Amino acid sequence: MTTGAGGASPTRSMSDTYFHDMYAGSDDPWGFAERFYERRKYALTLASLSAEHYPHVFEPGCSIGVLSDQLARRSDRLLCTDLSPRAVELATRRLAHHGDRVRVQIGDLLTDWPDEEFDLIVLSEVLYYLDPDALDGLLERLPASLSSGGEMIAVHWRHEVAEYPQSGDDVHDRLRHGPLHHAGGYRDADLRLDVFTARAGPSVAQRENLVP
Ligand SMILES: C[S@@+](CC[C@H](N)C(=O)[O-])C[C@H]1O[C@@H](n2cnc3c(N)ncnc32)[C@H](O)[C@@H]1O
């Protein structure tokens, strides 16, 4: 893994303690394994991906690995990271049946971004913990982390959370002005989801010769 963005150290105003405390209070603080809201969010996320299968996937902020488990079924290799050691321990347990195709590691997405190329990067409910300048720095780094046909999907809760430095809408507005090509999206009262690609390319229907 790389350390830092290769320039000034990125900043993060939310402390690790916030997340450590969440996991100290519960093994599933957001109810990822229980709530219909989360099952629906994951179904929307997975349905929005433009490929059935991806060789190499990266999911930073994987939490306890509920989405990761479904991503593992759509990929040859999956790297999951989270800054919380407890989350990584729980995700490691949940994902063990996938064998060594799935790696789960402790890592901060700002300072431990992997020096690898991915076909899909999944940023689900993790970017609004970053300060706006740190998010901009991360966005600049994304194209170099994606393969030529690579894709990035971002999904965030839209309701206000006082402790978060940015709202979900702030995040997605910034992403829309970033260096990646916007391929599509979905929004409702609760969540916003956007899919980006490394460059403009054929749609799913065009790839399957459904349109001239
Ligand atoms: C709301 S959960 C999202 C979990 C998962 N991505 C999903 O959508 O089901 C946010 C997770 O991101 C982790 N996290 C927050 N900031 C992070 C950072 N800078 N680097 C890595 N993980 C981070 C937290 O520890 C927490 O487990």
Automatic annotation (TrEMBL):
Keywords annotated in UniProt = Methyltransferase, S-adenosyl-L-methionine, Transferase
Q: What processes in GO biological process is this protein linked to?
A: methylation; oligosaccharide biosynthetic process
Q: Which Gene3D superfamilies match?
A: Vaccinia Virus protein VP39 (3.40.50.150)
Give the matching Pfam families: NodS
Asked if the record carries the keyword Methyltransferase, the reply is yes
Q: Which GO terms describe its molecular function?
A: S-adenosylmethionine-dependent methyltransferase activity
From what superkingdom does this record's organism come? Bacteria
What the entry lists under InterPro entries is as follows: SAM-dependent_MTases_sf, SAM-MeTfrase_NodS-like
Q: Which PANTHER family match?
A: METHYLTRANSFERASE (PTHR43464), UBIQUINONE BIOSYNTHESIS O-METHYLTRANSFERASE, MITOCHONDRIAL (PTHR43464:SF19)
Name of the protein in its database record: Methyltransferase domain-containing protein
List the top taxonomic levels of the source: Bacteria, Bacillati, Actinomycetota, Actinomycetes, Mycobacteriales
